[in-house]
Design goal:
By secondary structure, the protein is α+β, with helices and mostly antiparallel strands. The chain has helices at about 25-30, 115-125, 140-145, 150-155, 165-170; strands at about 10, 20-25, 40-50, 55-70, 75-90, 95-100, 100-105, 110.
């Protein structure tokens, strides 16, 4: 279990040395983030913060598995994720995020890593995620096959060809 409050880092209170923070994220973290892409998971996060003159250098590493819907059958599946990210935080007049630089309000001095960690995890998920062959929901795969365009194109091929295009079918292109 992970509280989102533990992701709020008091940068002003950090020592000059390197600070290492470890988090174990579970389903409750993704529910707290109101995640639409991720339904749960077991992800280990390591954050290393090095305080330097005028800025803070952060290295984030995430590794684990997340539960995401399969692109074919829509059932949840486990997707391994692993990612590294380097980030620089500095104090400024107001909070902002630009590229790999985060500006933290100097009066407040609190950096909330929860959304940054969530984004890092979501960006580590491949665009296409499907079950291994044969592991998808059989009922859903059957329904998908019934409604696929391949089946409807087979039925259309039995119908006569539009006479305007019939001559093109007889052409034989040679190299």
């Amino acid at each position: 279990m992970c509280s989102l409050e533990s992701f709020k880092i008091d940068l002003k209170g950090l020592k000059e040395d390197v600070t290492v923070l470890e988090y174990n994220l579970d389903e409750q973290f993704f529910k707290a983030m109101d995640s639409a892409e991720v339904n749960g998971g077991d992800v280990q996060v390591s954050v290393s913060i090095r305080k330097a003159t005028g800025y803070f250098e952060l290295h984030l590493h995430v590794r684990g598995t997340v539960a995401v819907p399969c692109n074919l059958c829509l059932d949840d599946m486990e997707q391994p994720v692993e990612a590294d990210h380097r980030l620089v935080a500095k104090f400024g007049a107001e909070n902002s995020e630009e590229d790999d630089v985060v500006t933290v309000d100097e009066d407040e001095g609190i950096l909330d890593l929860s959304w940054l960690v969530y984004e890092l995890i979501v960006l580590a998920i491949p665009i296409r995620h499907v079950h291994a062959p044969g592991k998808c929901n059989a009922a859903m795969m059957h329904a998908l096959e019934e409604h696929s365009t391949d089946r409807s194109s087979d039925e259309e091929s039995n119908q006569s060809i539009d006479p305007r295009w019939e001559k093109l079918a007889t052409l034989n292109i040679k190299d």
